[in-house]
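dumping this here before i forget
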Amino acid sequence: MTTWLAHLALDTSRTDVREELRNAVAMHRRVLSLFPDLPELHEARGHFGVLHRVEQARFVVQDNREAAPERLPDGYAVKFGVPRH
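structure:
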């Protein structure tokens, strides 16, 4: 199984980024928005094996399916990272 580790540099000049960095629940929702919708949001974390943390103005997301940064609002973040096995 491939484990993906994505680093997303957040644009802190955006109001929505700054607000979500101050609100853990909103940040959690934003991270889960990187993955396909499931009927129950709380199932997404386990289903996709999502672990995440915020380091300064960066998401670090580990999962068993590649995150889809195109699901973020335009300009929200820049993605860099490679799959890790």
